[in-house]
Prior knowledge:
- The chain has helices spanning 34-38, 68-84, 102-113, 131-136, 160-172, 190-205; strands at residues 4-7, 17-21, 44-48, 52-54, 57-59, 95-100, 120-124, 146-152, 176-182.
- By secondary structure, it is α/β, with parallel strands linked by helices.
- The chain has a single domain (4-205), classed as 3-Layer(aba) Sandwich (Rossmann fold).
- The strands form two sheets. A seven-stranded mixed sheet has the order 1-3-2-6-7-8-9, sandwiched between helices.
- Helix 2 packs across helix 3 (102-113).
Amino acid sequence: MLKTVLIPAHEHGSRRLLVVLHGLGDSVEGYRWMPREMGLPWLNYLLVNAPDEYYGGYSWYDIYEDPDPGVQRSRRLLFELLDKLPERDFPHEQVMMFGFSQGCVLTIETAARYPRRLAGFVGVSGYVHGAEELIRELSPVAREQRILMTHGTRDPLIPIAPVRVQVERLRNAGMQIEWREFTKAHEIAGWEELELIRQFIGRCFGKEAPEISPRPPSFF
């Protein structure tokens, strides 16, 4: 079972939920800034810790060995988590998923393989694990999922060129992926990228993302 932290929406009774997956070595603590910076009062947040300990944080899969067993295990745990959300009054059509780096990898895995349609997916600074196999095993609803992927042209950890090819393969297979590039390293590129994510989330939920004046984000 995955450890989670629920941060309720300011709007009482809202059932809209963003499931947040951190990157390698991070934890739920690294994303407590998100509700404040996103400024979406109608959105609940479910922050999720990856299952493996990693130098004071957590990991979704082993980066030093074959990642496939870890990806499969984490995917199964996330599917179990998603399956139980309606019991917590979060219907699948009101659930989105956000992931950074390793969390992005699991977000795309979920978008492609989870058998129920969610409201949308956001993947930042990640890649597609086993793209060809993924395409062969797309779920019946995979081509209906709405996906935003962003990446940095200066990312030293996950170079952008191979990811472009992977995304194009998924698009050619019929997946609905909005792809955006930023002049950034392995990070979230401040206000411009946050605003893109905010507006995408708003469109997926059919809700207006309130206008917020641009400002330097205070992530920590």
